[in-house]
Amino acid sequence: MIFNLSWKNFKGQFLNYLVYFVSMTFAVVVYYCFSALTYNRSLTNRLGQEIHIDGAMNLGGVLIVIMILGFMFAANHFFLLKRRKEIGLYQLVGMKKTQISLLFFIETLFLGAISLITGLFLGVIFSKLFSMILAKAMFLQVESLFFISVPSMVQTSVVFVFMLLAVSIRSTWLIYLYQVTNLLTPEKKREAASNRLSRFKAGLGVFGALLILFGYFLSYNIVQFISFLMKTSLGFGGFFLAPLVILAICCIGTFLFFKYTMHLVVYLFTKNRSAYYRNLNMVAVGNTKLHMTRVGSTLFAVTIFIAIALGMIGGAASIYTIGMNSVNIVAPNDYIVAEDDLDKVMTTIENQSDTSVKSLVELNYKLTGSRYSLKIGQDASQSNLTPINIMALSNYREFQKYNHYLKNIELKHPTDLVVLDSIQNTLAGVIRYDSDFIFSENTRFQIADVRPDYLGQDLLRYSFPTVIVSDEQFNKINTGISYSLYAINVDSKDEEALSDKIAEEIKPKWISPVYYRYQWKGQKVEGYTSKTSRNPEKKEGQSPSDLDEQEYWQLNYTSRFSDLRYKRREMGLFIYVAMFLGILALIITGSILMLHQFSEAEREKERYELLKKIGVSEKEIRKLVYQQNSIIFFPPMIIGVLHASFAIYVFSMIITSSGYWLAYLSCGLLILIYLAYYFLTSAIYIRIVLEKD
Is 141:49 a contact under the CB 8 Å cutoff? Predict the structure, then answer.
């Protein structure tokens, strides 16, 4: 009997279960394909030891499980709410709660098994497509063979069986908690609650809207907010705390908005009598009150989920751009080599067929002591006493001819300098240099400008900042040490083979250590930078803190092709995982809202039947349905997009990048997805309430 009853209920709930089935199947496909990629030997062999995709795919799989488990719990909750009366009737006719739980367990297991089998079948079919997309994202030339991963099928099956069991256990627990009286008469309580709006709730509604606006205000003024927190006892911790504070404010505001603010808006609308009694607005308002009472918490969760999904997609796109731009920073030319390894690199290039040197520029640096100040936010300046790299303006301009990332520099006064620092590549809005530099010769230089550092990997320059000074001032500096780097551009038909050959001949290593010790004494910079240590031999038992001489080493060379290949693979893998997870999150949130509205349609059949009997046309009913669904779909979409947009703005103010347009494009993608869900849901909703096939 239970099996027959299960099948009968399944057919009666087919439309709701169809949405559940499609979402679950898509999740199984994505999870299987993520798992199967880790067993794709042609892909993993091509990546070698540079990138390990198993870690990223396993993390993606865990996040998929978390998202789909949340969806299953939410969908299961809707099914139980929709079938309260049915469960109550089962109890009244003598069915035990164990039998009712078994009935729901069979339905969940049956639907889950179909979703799992279908998802695995489609996953096997589309796994090649997934691997091709990943290979394209990582710029890999690899043959994507069709294969079936048995370990991935087993892993996917085990994971989803455990999730189905978890959902079934939760259903059983809820069924045992429900009482027959509550199951049969929940709507009257909800209707009564929806008609009450106390002053306290109205105040919470206003407070919720103000919190969201305040969070947006702090986001728009993020630099000032960070500076304010850093002036407190939090210190630099304020830099990390500021985004968390804004996040908490927006989350609390969003919860209050859907719990109370929307009720307040509806209440204020009813005060406008001319609008309230126009057409079917009175019916729409009444239904809206009930909807908001039933689904306020769900809309809050959906909105936060939307913001996270958009942040995931937009953030991935932005980080991809930042990561790819970092290649231009560390390797603006094909090769930058220290003097010790120049001959080996040139010999390797000359021995490689179809390869020639297009340009070779010598970069001359002087490393000497300097005192300068950094300002973090609007906090007081912090003095630094370290060596600094100095380059002559003429040498900079010579290099600029073969490095198009370098911008023109003009020094109007003899003591002007321009700072090139990697800080400006990322945290230009928060950390900046103060007004002057004092060198070991005790010459004071004024900062004419601060530019991003596109001179190449700063590890080649001992990780110290670099400044550009006039040729005259450069020649006057006699303290410290001098060294040279060589920027090489090549013309090669097989860049990968050349890069691999150089990597075989010249291993990346640390060379040419320098030792320095400086102090600020008598308003002067005193100390030394030397290629040999001037520190006395460390005695037995002497701790490192007793020695104030610092030691730094230089990297021997960088290869643009190697860095670009690694970064493409790393960022491609990152954006691949983030994009699929973000799209899955959007599908899940849209499906949750769709399921809820289908449940509402079943509840409100009688009301719409009554409207038809009193003469309301189908055209007006359709308009009413679209109006009601817009209240459910559009507020989460709009607020979620606003949250994500301000989050992206905060990110852009802290970390400089030219790729944030991709993040805003993802917001447009969400709008299109949700409009599709909105129109599809409304069309099916109309068919349900009008009882059409």
Answer: no
How would DSSP label each residue in 639-688? Answer: HHHHHHHHHHHHHHHHS--S-HHHHHHHHHHHHHHHHHHHHHHHHHHHHH
Is 294 within 8 Å of 601 (Cβ atoms)?
Answer: no
| DSSP helix/strand/coil, 305 | helix
Instruction: Report d(CA 342, CA 557) in Å as an integer.
Output: 9
Which residues touch 635 (CB under 8 Å, ≥6 apart)? 258, 262, 299, 303
Taking the CB of residue 354, how many other CB atoms lie within 10 A of it? 10
Task: Return d(Cα 645, Cα 627) in angstroms, integer.
Answer: 26
Cβ atoms of 141 and 47 closer than 8 Å = no
Of the listed ranges 50-59, 516-525, 540-549, 612-621, the least confidently predicted one is 540-549
* pTM (2 d.p.): 0.70
What letters, b where the CB count within 10 A reaches 16 and e where it falls short, cover 215-239? Answer: bbebbeebbebbbbbbeeeeeeebb
Of the listed ranges 171-175, 180-184, 567-571, the one predicted with least confidence: 180-184
DSSP state of 260: I
Dmax (CA) of the chain: 102
- The two structure tokens encoding residue 112: 């889950």
Give yes or no for residue 204 having a pLDDT over 50: yes
Share of the chain above pLDDT 70, in %: 79
User: What sign does the CA torsion over 101, 102, 107, 108 have?
Assistant: positive
Residues 6+ apart with CB under 8 A from 128: 144, 145, 146, 147
Helix, coil or strand: residue 529? strand
Amino acid at 53: I
Determine the 3-state secondary structure of 565 from DSSP.
Answer: helix
Is residue 677 within 8 A of residue 685, CB to CB? The reply is no
Token code pair at residue 365? 């640096």
d(CA 503, CA 335): 11
